Amino acid sequence: MEETTLNNDIHVKLTERFGEKITAVSEPYGLLTFVTYKDVIINVLSHLKEELKFNFLTDITAVHYPGKDHGIAVVYHLHNMVEKVRIRIKVFISEQNPTIPTATTVWKGANWMERETYDLFGVKFEGHPDLRRILNMDDLGVHPMLKQYPLEDPNRVDKKDEFFGR
Amino acid sequence: MNHNHPVFTDNDPQSELVTLNLGPTHPATHGVFQNVLQLDGERIVSGVSTIGYIHRAFEKIAEHRPFYQITPLTDRLNYCSSPINNMGWHMTVEKLLNIKMPKRVDYLRVIVMELSRIADHIICNTIIGQDTGATTTFLYLFQFREHIYEIFEEVCGARLTTNIGRIGGFERDFNDIAFAKINKFLKEFPVALKEFENLLTRNRIFIDRTAGVAEVTKETALEYSWTGPLLRATGVDYDVRVSDPYSSYQDFDFEVPVGTSGDIYDRYLVRNEEMWQSLRIVEQAIEKLKSEPKGIFHADVPEFYLPPKQEVYNNMEALIYHFKIVMGEIDAPKAEVYHAVEGGNGELGFYLINDGGRTPYRLHFRRPSFINYQMFAPMSEGMLLSDAIINMSSMNIIAGELDA
Q1: What is the CATH number of domain B60-366?
Q2: Inter-chain CB proximity A130 and B359 less than 8 Å
Q3: Sheet harboring B335-342: ordered strands across?
Q4: pTM
Q5: Which of B5, B55, B181, B363 could bridge across to B403 with cysteines, CB 3.0–4.6 Å?
Q6: Do residue B340 and residue A58 have CB atoms under 8 angstroms apart?
Q7: Every domain of chain B and the residues it spans
Q8: Of B327, B337, B374, which is closest to A28 when you measure between CB atoms?
């Protein structure tokens, strides 16, 4: 229960500062989750870091929801090590123009996490010092974690996914 | 300094710098990753890290597999301590499914996880010894990793890529031989670890090579999202086992060792002390198991826990559950969950989104090696090449975890 009130505090403080830019607040498994927008994401992150003591960037990744207006969600996990609270922030960006400001201005450690996200999802982090592919080869040409790319060659007849319950 | 693009100066007769390809298959890197270094004599002027040599697209593969088939993928992340990865994954799914484990299972898991932490730290610390020129320590302590693998073999049948346990518990109970081997290990390992420490900890050459080398401040470490022994060596007492206890770690009495300067010597000391603490935890777990009811090795959740094979052939419910689990038809809530465990190298996180399909909609691994390693090239600048090598071995970069 303690964590819930703490989450509530954070929610209230964020809403005071950012108002309607903080939406879709939920708490799956006790982890405060909200959606914000890419014009304020860096302000939100630095506000969380400086004012609310979320000093630690746990992770940056993305999720692809094909067929939606804003089909790529960039997901940030932050951690307040003093009060032992985690928080999850999502920003939905358009699939056609997947750009978002870089978080490397807030945490240097965001560098490779964003490179990985760029490599796998094609999210372009504006202002990133070194936005290159990191895991895949440079001339791959696609961003393989997007849902339109199948795991295996779709023309194979011996391994149709439906036979394997996939 | 330019970290962006490797510069090769071999063809430039005017250049005073030498380009050195450290890796991808250099014996000193202990794994497949490349660093293109610019050397001025023996000093590193700049470096560019290239990774991805064993990228196997686990996150993509995981989107096409039911939950129980993802366990073998997690084996191959940090393959020096696969049981921690396995358990981390099981616990993530259990968190999603709201399954609560019996205490006995928690303790068995703690035993397995702490043993693999010891195995992981043995590798790292002996290799620091090896890279500073002390082969004895490597050869001497490494046999105990073998003993730990024998324990795993007794529990699950495999040694390195263990695939240990199931979602909902273990596949079978620990047998008497396993406990006998654990007890034997608990008796023999402290003696060897003490001798290992006698060989290195106050060794003049070792201290000269490691103390004050690659110092990292707390602020930098946090800025770069370091976790695990590397972060603790800088003086931040962050350990997932304590800050966010899972698998009943709150029942155990242990300490979180921290260093002061974050140099290689501190990392070595922190890892060594963690091995002692892990031994303490295993001892306590063995003790606690005595007061738990015998024979419980999984939670009572037939709809999520794979039934034994003879049940599948003889019992209709078991057959149905078996079919549903294997085909990924389990009734999992549509939700997203983040679960972190303290892996050998730091916070190993699993970010799982389930949309009610047969497979995860998205699974992301927060891999400590990947995030720790990004600081290697910047921090190598101005360092001697031989120091950078031991710096790399003290970071314990595991290629599988680096590349996923």
Answers
A1: 1.10.645.10
A2: no
A3: B335-342, B347-354, B362-366
A4: 0.93
A5: B55
A6: yes
A7: 60-366
A8: B337
